[in-house]
Write a structure and sequence with these properties.
about 350 residues, alpha+beta, Wheat Germ Agglutinin (Isolectin 2), domain 1, 3 domains, two-stranded antiparallel sheet, about 40% helix
Length: about 350
């Protein structure tokens, strides 16, 4: 994947160092700053620019306004042999989520399955970051999160639910995990925000304006359509509602319209939730051959007409390309990054 006209390609290591320097300005612990920076850059390497390094400036903005805490008092409560709750204390969502996911992995190692809920956190980035960690360690990983009202429910046109992404990852012998990482809307809202920043259009059929009409104007977009669009959006809507219940009410968090907006009311903590599940395949009949069978399935699919790829393979292809060519930084983001560099007294990576 490559950027549009005027994009600058920047190396992953350069962007990581810049992000760490920016975050350290807010007195984040070194490990937390590196965790967040590496997660964002990894997401950009996968070609998921809606959730990659472009989101750092948003986190810096909320750190400035105090709605995200640089040094939260995260509280972990084990509630049963395979369950736990992580209270994020308004910390950076990616840092809190990695900790909760690691706990789910530990519980799965001990008991075969681990389920961990997160409360009082913030935006946790691309959920494939977490499911892949579990799968690389031989487990099945699942990750879910929610957000403020962005998507219209099927049959309506006013925003009510978030894009509420889902990720499931499976170990694959001799290769990176198979990983499904998808929003329950046709596109993530951050793609609309990126289009607004760059003055670009969005695809038809993925968003509606304030009157419920289809729009390709990012500025006019008022709500995203659920996955499946105007005819089959009941499927995406149903998935979004399930994720909302898992991440919001189950963890004592607000839901949809009760959550503070991501890009407004910057002093207001958002109280975002997440939910992580890890499963040990060795507790099941197919466990000993599971990863090998996944690889066999991938090869069988690749031999089919059209050479279908496994979920996650396109991200791996983007990563290989961007490790060589660099990560494209669009002009609008370039301006934001230079402005923050100047504001924080950090050398610009551009």
């Amino acid at each position: 994947m490559s950027g549009g006209a005027g994009a600058l390609n920047v190396g992953a290591a350069v962007l990581t160092d810049w992000a760490i320097a920016c975050l350290r300005h807010f007195e984040l612990p070194e490990d937390d700053a590196r965790c967040l920076a590496e997660s964002l850059v990894q997401t950009s390497l996968w070609g998921i620019d809606s959730h990659g390094i472009a989101r750092l400036t948003h986190y810096l903005n909320r750190l400035t306004h105090g709605s995200i805490q640089a040094r939260p008092e995260i509280v972990v409560t084990r509630s049963g042999p395979g369950t736990a709750q992580v209270a994020g204390d308004r910390g950076l969502g990616i840092v809190v989520a990695h900790r909760a996911n690691r706990l789910a992995i530990e519980l799965a190692r001990e008991n075969g399955i681990g389920a961990v809920g997160v409360s009082d956190s913030s935006h946790c980035g691309a959920v494939g970051l977490y499911s892949r960690v579990a799968a690389r360690e031989g487990l099945i990983g699942m990750a879910f999160t929610h957000s403020d009202k962005i998507a219209a429910p099927f049959g309506g046109h006013r925003p009510f639910l978030g894009t509420n992404p889902i990720s499931l990852a499976f170990p694959r012998e001799g290769s990176e995990p198979v990983c499904l990482d998808m929003a329950t809307t046709s596109i993530p809202w951050n793609r609309v925000m990126n289009a607004r920043r760059e003055g670009a259009a969005i695809a038809p059929g993925v968003a509606v304006d304030g009157e419920g009409g289809d729009t390709t104007d990012a500025q006019a977009a008022n709500a995203l359509r659920p996955l499946g669009g105007p005819d089959y959006g009941h499927k995406g809507y149903g998935l979004a509602l399930i994720v909302e219940l898992l991440c919001g009410p189950l963890n004592g968090n607000p839901y949809g319209p009760q959550i503070g907006p991501m890009y407004a009311e910057l002093e207001r903590p958002r109280r975002i939730g997440a939910f992580f599940v890890a499963i040990d395949p060795m507790r099941f009949a197919g466990g000993p051959m599971f990863a090998a069978t996944v690889e066999h399935m991938a090869r069988a699919l690749a031999a089919e007409p059209g050479a279908p790829r496994m979920p996650g393979d396109p991200e791996l292809a983007a990563q290989a390309k961007r490790r060589v060519e660099g990560i494209p930084i669009e002009p609008g983001l370039t301006a934001e990054m230079r402005a923050w560099s100047s504001r924080l007294g950090v050398a610009s990576p551009l």
